[in-house]
UniProtKB/TrEMBL annotation:
It comes from the Eukaryota. Residues 574-584 have a biased composition (Polar residues). This is RNA helicase. It comes from Hydra vulgaris. InterPro entries: DEAD/DEAH_box_helicase_dom (IPR011545), Helicase_ATP-bd (IPR014001), Helicase_C-like (IPR001650), P-loop_NTPase (IPR027417), RNA-helicase_DEAD-box_CS (IPR000629), RNA_helicase_DEAD_Q_motif (IPR014014), Znf_CCHC (IPR001878), Znf_CCHC_sf (IPR036875).
Amino acid sequence: MSDDWDETPTSDVGGFGSGAGGSSSFGKSFNSGGGFGSSSAGGFGDTSVGGFGSSGGFGASEKRDDGCRICKQSGHFAKDCPDKKPRDDTCRRCGESGHFAKDCEAPQDPNKPQAVTYVPPEPSEDEQDLYRTIAQGINFNKYDNIPVEVTGPGIIPSAIREFAEANIDRTILENVEKAHYIKPTPVQKYAIPIITGNRDLMSCAQTGSGKTAAFLIPVLNTLMQFRSELTSSLSEVQAPLALVIAPTRELAVQIQKEARKFAQNTSIKPVVIYGGVQVAYHLRQVQQGCHLLVGTPGRLKDFLGKRKISLANLKYLILDEADRMLDMGFLPEIKAIINDFDMPPKEDRHTLMFSATFPTEIQNLAAEFLNNYVYLTIGKVGGTHSDITQCIMEVEESAKRDKLIEILDTEGTNRNLVFVQTKRLADFLASYLCQNGFHTTSIHGDRLQQQREEALAEFKAGTQHVLIATAVAARGLDIADVKQVINYDLPDEIEEYIHRIGRTGRIGNKGKAISFFTRGKDEGLARALVKTLADAEQEVPSWLEEAAESALGTGYGPKGGRFASKDSRFNNAELNGGSYNAADSNDGWQKNNDNGGGGGDDAWE
């Protein structure tokens, strides 16, 4: 739903002694157009229309018409007109007389949407808070053995071994070091040089593999080269050079926080806009300077429609969690943002798409927005980390609550993220756990934005040990030290399962995912679960294999063929690239990866 604000009309009236349109300043020549004593229209003592002593001004030869605007008769003014209707003192809220709406004590209509007044707290400027991150786990170096596939037309830039090899601006590199990024992850090794090499990119990497930094670092580095084009905070319409679109409010906030981290002590101002927050607050944030904009589709489209933001100068368009951004729910808004405003065509901008899952149909759809792109796959497409221990339990619907209590009783103060399918169940289960002594909160789409942000902050701070969530928390959220994810309800699609359990076991840390499987309800996911577990070298229960054999469908999941293990253009003879390991056992790099280097055509020259 669009957000509205009041437009403040601007005056076009000229100043004293100004010319037509008021462009000159007070004190300029009285003989200029429209000034005192002017010979043109409207001057003081003018003989033409509108001046003092003119035919329509003070002392004019024509008699003033003092007719009443109500009855159109002469001899009195409207305020004295006998036909004047009495003032209506009926209240707009309750319809009763004798008071106005501002004094009305009647309750508000519960069906009428309330004005959004929430203003989020100002972000901390403390470096310790800004650079707090998930520490690299004991399995981080195992990333070097992850298979990598890079395909695309033209010369594909070679991967880097260290951040210092990427020719990153010194200030940004210092910020990377402050964030304790010691060594690039595989997606960062490949994506950073591809982006700095001015190529479009579709990147598919496992959850928790550092995708956000993989696009923010090179994009911010390039924006530093365009400092002369950064919009001034004095400009009424801000024109960001980079736009990141995210599917959820929480993910948008997180991306902007990461951007602030890497842009610290530079001239680049990252700003975030999303629904559920007072529009005037976001407008002030944008107008104070906006060079990298992060937003959700609804609020972004609203600001574009009100002409508070221009995309005319855009260098980068980034879709995070792109598979969801391009599904049927978001696709119309994404197309409108790209096609209906002033965004440069795909040949004149760079488009980057990142996700953990890229089904073939989404790849084909994404190609509409990409130009001459590189396809990067890190690990098994649609796969999960072996760092996450996955356990599928067969549980009757009526026994789920007791089983959840039994599991949480062994967890102490560890952070547990519990996923359910409905908003009502999220609140009910949170209340039930609180009554049983567990520090629990919930997050879902029907909670006010302030409540959502407070719940997430309390869970991150450790004051709440259990977070009950719907799909709103499944995508991209980077919460430190989530020991366990519990699928109280399994999702309908295997992609959602992968995103959910990816909230644990991040950046080489170990995690655990437990899922409740209910007969008569979850068989549609059985085959996909069997393959996901087998690919991650996890134990597959015999009862789940039996359920999978009798389940509908013949492919990898309920719809069949949902996962693309390769670039959908792979049979194109013009594609270059190949398959590599992220590193070998000798010097941290596979030599046969150095297959050309260099960038593609620079779309800005």
